[in-house]
Specification:
Helix content: 25-40%
Largest sheet: 2 strands, antiparallel
Strand content: under 5%
Number of strands: 2
């Protein structure tokens, strides 16, 4: 006896494998994310320097901008130069340094809010 796969059986197996693949991909992409995205989303998305000039990138480097402050008391969101992120956005901005700024980031220009 030969095992033959009917057209209906083939389609069912193909759809099942596709659904399993999509489900697995969704599960893997959700691994390690906090509810709401929060800091993990900010740190990941605040490194996109697309569109910045070399001078702007140099400004970030020369002022030692990092996405995670070594001292939580000097985080960007506590700085007077920080511009809060728009609703739903992970990254804010800065009055001096161009590009996306992580709320929990830091640089040498820290000036505490009054």
């Amino acid at each position: 006896m030969r095992d033959q796969l009917s057209r209906r059986g083939f389609i069912q197996k193909t759809v099942s494998v596709g659904a399993l693949t999509i489900g697995t991909a969704a599960l893997v992409s959700a691994c390690g994310k906090k509810e709401g995205g929060g800091e993990a989303k900010a740190a990941a998305g605040c490194n996109d320097l697309t569109g910045l000039s070399d001078a702007d990138k140099g400004m970030r480097t020369s002022n030692k901008y990092v996405d995670k402050a070594a001292d939580a008391k000097k985080a960007c969101d506590l700085c007077a130069l920080y511009k809060a992120a728009a609703a739903g956005a992970a990254c804010g901005g800065c009055s001096v340094i161009k590009g996306p700024i992580a709320p929990k980031g830091s640089c040498n220009l820290f000036a505490p809010k009054a």
